[in-house]
Amino acid sequence: MLGPPLRLLRRRGPHGLRVAAWAIRARRRVRRQVAHGGLDAVRPPAPPPGPDADREVVLAALRRTGANCLERSLVLQRWDAAHWVPRTLVIGVTAPSTGFHAHAWLDGDPDPHRAGMNELLRRPPDPGWLPDADEPGAGPPRSGRARRRAHAGEPGQARSTRP
């Protein structure tokens, strides 16, 4: 089972391994917190500093560990918020007459499973998940317009350019 970590180490270096380990740890924590206290209890750990491009590593780790849609959305919401992209969690359901299904996604993400879903809940990220503008290496806050667009989940949202 060393294949995937070794491939990741070769492709992304030690930082990629740290990001994958964070994603796995965050998913486990989110799963426990949702089970024991619901959405109000969710407090994923802060992600390691690094470029937005590492989101691919987070997605791959979540896929490999079998994260469900809610776990994936909450971990990605935490990751995006730490990179100055506040995203709203959306939870939707289908009508019982068509066979009840529930699904979670981040607003603005393309998701084929959300077709036909009726939104039940929209939950913005915890304000404490956003980096402090005074934090070293946090990067400058974006303009108010870009921040509002990212929060609304509009396509073409601005992403951080931090190294």
Explain the overall architecture:
It is a single chain. The protein is mainly α and 163 residues long. It has one domain. It is built from 4 helices and 3 strands, in the order αααβββα. Strands 2-1-3 form a 3-stranded antiparallel beta sheet, covered by helices on one side. Helix 1 (3-37) crosses helix 2 (55-64) and helix 2 (55-64) packs antiparallel against helix 3. The protein is globular. The model is unreliable at 140-163 (pLDDT under 50).
Quick summary:
The chain contains four helices and three strands, in the order αααβββα. It is mostly helical and 163 residues long. Helix 2 runs antiparallel to helix 3 (69-82).
Number of helices: 4
Low-confidence stretches: 140-163
Class by SSE composition: mainly alpha
Could you give the order of strands across the largest sheet?
2-1-3
Percent range of helical residues:
40-55%
Which radius of gyration do the C-alpha atoms yield? 16 Å
Query: In whole angstroms, how far apart are the ends?
Result: 31 Å
For the largest beta-sheet, the strand count, sense and barrel status come to: 3 strands, antiparallel
